[in-house]
Amino acid sequence: MSIGFGVGLRTPHYREFLENKPAVDWLEVHSENYFGDGGWDMHVLMTLRETYPISLHGVGLGLGSANGISSAHLAKIKALADRVQPELVSEHLCWGNVSGRVLNDLLPLPYTEEVLAVIAAHVRQMQDVLGRQVLIENLSSYVQFASSTLSEAAFLNELVAQTGCGLLLDVNNVYVNQCNHGISALDTIHALNLDAVKEIHLAGHCVLDDVVIDHHGDVVADEVWDLYRIVVARMGHVSTLIEWDTDVPDLSVLLAQSDKARGVAHQASQVLV
């Protein structure tokens, strides 16, 4: 069930949300920013959850890490989810730790049966601890692995089949990978099990001479809006978020992008295919 059109809650906008309660359907936060038991950030989140549905979006668990995921980190996500009672909980299809060291990045995986078994075990572990379905987000990447034997879509579909997880479809990431690797964004979308998609991310990217960077620092590109139309035309309304993490603008810019998503989705859903 769609919870509408939301924006990521960022620190520069705390005061405006607290004082004005701007019209937006829901808010998403990065889980790791709220692991503390108290403080200003937690106060803001707990206050706003009385007005807005909340989604917890994790960036640090590293579900694809071969040496396992941190039980302490997972326990903090569990405590936060129990406290906030979010509508959605999500994590990335990536790895992020090795030899006891946590790397501050969302690192890509080879798409093989061996890696699938590792990440499926970790997704099941996360869902068992949280007692709920978790959404897994497709990744933007800047390298590919020669050892991959599955497409990204096939890998994600099999992960859903093995674990019962849902998908968070980042449409911008699909487009970035098309630009960087020549992988058809349309083919990826058409191959995905869209019945498993419970949330969509839309964001801006940075085009350089030899690479496209998923920097979340600009308005959504026209090409990404076109792909979003295609997704909604195939599956109808789905909870949609505008992400913006670098050079964060006035809140009005994010709200305008969210309103645009609402308009695009309404138009596209009239022509379900």
UniProtKB/TrEMBL annotation:
InterPro entries named in the record: MbnB/TglH/ChrH, Xyl_isomerase-like_sf
Family from the record: Belongs to the UPF0276 family.
Protein name: UPF0276 protein GCM10009007_13180
